[in-house]
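Need tokens for this chain, all 163 residues.
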Amino acid sequence: MEVARDARFYGGGVFRGIALEAPEVEGGSDSSLEFFRSEVRWGKILSAKPRRLWIEQSHFSVTLLEELDPGSVWIDHSVFKEVDFTRVNFRLGQIGLSTFSRVNFREVNLSKARFVRCEFFDCQFAECDFQDTTFKQCFFRDCTTPGSRPETSWTIDCQGELK
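Here are the structure tokens for all 163 residues:
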């Protein structure tokens, strides 16, 4: 399988059944996984170590993101519905103005990530690392944290709570 250095999805495309499986790219420090004004449905993005994961003004539904270890994370103005994040590294990530509905976070490293003005509906954070994670002006409804310790995170001007 040939692996591209970058995977960029721009400009209003709808990607159904997308399957990206990209082991660490040779010269991985230059690789990038980017979605801008894109829609991903019924997708799988597996085993990638891009330098950057950038998602802006995009919509993900019924999609699995597993074993992702990006160097940096930027998510803004995006919607995630029925998405599974499994063993994804969001450490030091910047996530803003995004909505997460029926999203499962499993063994996700949220350490020192910053969520600003995000909404979480019926989400599960199972065995996630919340160490020094910041939630600022976020909204939580029916979110659970089995096997996680959300008390190690910071919540500022949020509504609802992680249970």
